[in-house]
Amino acid sequence: MKRSIWILSFALLLLGGMNTLSAQDLKRSQDRPEVVAKAKVSELSQTLDLTGDQQRTIFRAMVKYEKARSQEENYDLEAVMKKTLTAEQFDQWKKMKDN
């Protein structure tokens, strides 16, 4: 009887621990530079009406920026954005960024 209670307790403890681990993995994947960049590009695409080429270029720039930011390196995202966006889109992006 004691053995079956011990096995049941151990199984419940094991299941609870696995749930915590999977929640941590989910959070970790949301912090990846690619995931963050995709979300930002999606938002910018809707706001600035980006073309496909602009989306790809900005996605690559955002991934580099997020990786550099996580490693505390300096990456000039503004230069890439200015080169990629039209003048009107760049002005809108600057206003969004400042807010």
Structure explained in plain terms:
With 99 residues, this protein is mostly helical. It folds into 2 domains: 1-30; 33-98. The model has no long low-confidence stretch (mean pLDDT 82). The protein is 85% helix and 0% strand.
Q: Structural class of the helices, strands and pairings?
A: mainly alpha
Low-confidence stretches: none
Computed CA radius of gyration, to the nearest angstrom: 22 Å
Mean pLDDT reading: 82
> Main beta sheet: strand number and arrangement?
none
Shape descriptor: elongated
How many β-strand runs?
Answer: 0
Number of helices: 5
Helix content: over 70%
How do the SSEs run, as a string of H and E?
HHHHH
Our count of domains comes out at: 2
β-strand percent reads under 5%
Termini separation comes to 64 Å
Keywords:
99 residues, mainly alpha, DUF4168 domain-containing protein, signal
Gist of the model:
The protein has helices spanning 2-30, 33-48, 52-70, 77-84, 87-98.
Sequence-ordered SSE layout with sheet pairings:
Blueprint: H1 2-30, H2 33-48, H3 52-70, H4 77-84, H5 87-98
